[in-house]
Structures are given as C-alpha cells and as structure tokens.
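Notebook entry, structure prediction.
Reason for the run: the old model in the group folder had no record of what sequence produced it. Starting over properly, with the input documented here first.
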Amino acid sequence: MNPELLRVKDLKIHFPVTSGILRRTTGHVRAVDGVSFSIERGRTLGLVGESGSGKTTTGRALLRLVDITSGTVTVEGIDVTAARSRELRRLRPRMQMIFQDPLSCLNPRLSVADIIAEPLDENEQLTRRDRDRAVGQLMDAVGLLRAWAMRFPHEFSGGQCQRIGIARALALKPRLIVCDEPIASLDFSVQAQIVNLLKDLQEEHALAYLFISHDLGMIRHMADDVAVMYLGKIVERAPVDMLFDNPMHPYTQALMSAAPSMPGTARRRRVVLKGESPSASEPLAGCVFRSRCPLATAVCSHKTPSLATVATDHRVACHLHPSAREPQTS
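New structure, fully documented this time:
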C-alpha cells in the first residue's frame, strides 16, 4: 500500500479584486501561491505562520471549500481538483474538517444526535436503529455521554462543542482530517484534552492530519513534520524535531524566538521583525520575505528562492542556502 495519502502540487488560490460600478477585476489576492506538500497515512503535518499567510485557505482548498486557481490536490491517487460534483460527493467522506470556532460551526437548531448523524443521513442509508447505534459509538469515542444526545449546542462548553465537531468529522470514517486551529478558542486546561483525544483517534484509526495552528508548543507535541508559511508560500519544511532544533529560514527563526522556551531547551536569541507583511494583492519580485528579513541581500529583491533540500528531509526557500538558488522539483 502506498503510504502517501495526500499530495498537493503547486497549489494556487487567487481571489479577484474588483472595483468600480461594473465590478471589473483590477487585480488578485494571492492567498496561496505555489504550495506543494504531501502527508502519509497516520502522520500529521503541522502548518504554521502568522495570520494572513494562507494556512486556512490551504486547508479549505483540500476539501474544495474554496475555488482553486491552479495546481492539483490528490487524495489516495484521485485528483480532487478535477473531480466533478458527483465524484466529489463520493470523495468527500474521505476528507473532513474540524473548524476553529466549535460553537459557530454547529447548527443551533439541531440536537447533538442530529448534528453527529448529519453526514450519515447525507451519505448512508441507515435504519433508525443503526443510526442511533452509530451516533452512540461516536459519542463514546470522543468522550461524550450518550445521555446528552438530545441536548442542543448552547448547553455545552467550548471543549464539549469541539468534541461534537470531532465526532461529526469521524462519522464517515475519513482518512484525512484538516484541523483548522481546533484548540485556539478553548481554555488552556481543555486544549490538552482535545489534542490527546486527536492523537488517540489518530492511533486507533490511522488518520492523517493537516494541523493548522499558531501555537508552536502544540505543533511540536502534535506534528510529525512542520511546514512554515509566509504570504502564501511555504518557506521551510522539515521533521518537527529538526525544525525546532535547527530552524534555517530567517522567518522560522523569528517565529521560534517569539515562542516561550520549551522546558529543557536553551533560550533563543530574540529576533524582532520590522515593518508589516506586504499585501498579497501586490505582485512581488524575488523573495516574499525580503522586506522584513534582517539578512536580505541584493539577490533577494529580484530572484525567487526555490524550496530546496539543504539537509536530509529539510527544505528551505532562502538564498542564504546556495541550493535554494537553483530550480527544484516538488
């Protein structure tokens, strides 16, 4: 069996910018601009970067929740980007998403049982007894009492609502789950419970996760590999320990220096970035990070670095590393 579950190649998502009475297109916002990565079965890719870097848009694109400008998304050898509506409907059960705000993604008019059973009602032909049995098993799996099945979302805490969302995502036995900052809106005491639940479910069902988060500590705990995004591009990717022990891109180094020190690790030298991120609607020549990079050189202003291998399984898009100056295949 091919261990690779998901492959994304040169993914681009450009949103049109319109102006005037006739709403003519005058430009594009390059939310995602040439992203490539893969995820193997049972493994987690952590996706990090500041707000506006394109993380959530990338995650939504995997499920075709946003229009894809170009590139391919392949799940178990099937091209999701080329799938028509009927074929996409057959593919959707293999890919699910856990959203950031657990309460806003649950229908307040439905009971917990109906929320969890909604994917089953749309995709399976189950008797009432089988439906109720499946809902009960899913509630057991995520630590919810079956006695709560007829309650409504407003009767639950944020952590419990997130468990409901996880149960709904598991209903169709997916192979891939996109976790879009699933713990960001939860209390610190609840975050560890949800992350441990996700890890237990991954081990039990061999799930692959794309785990999007701002929390570097949680990424280190959760992920097997990490990709760092900046302004729609992946600027560094490596196994989690390698990336945290030896970040090579100046942007990754700045992110690491801003995070609280992990127990047992040396304190990093603080790297302060000046200025603001450029607008994603402006065409940029050269390296997208050059305007804020403390190590930028003349070549950075006119030549775009490729994501190149600088060590085993460690890829960086930076002219500080000579191999990034030559075109690389994804």
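Summary: The radius of gyration is 21 Å.
The old model has been moved to the deprecated folder.
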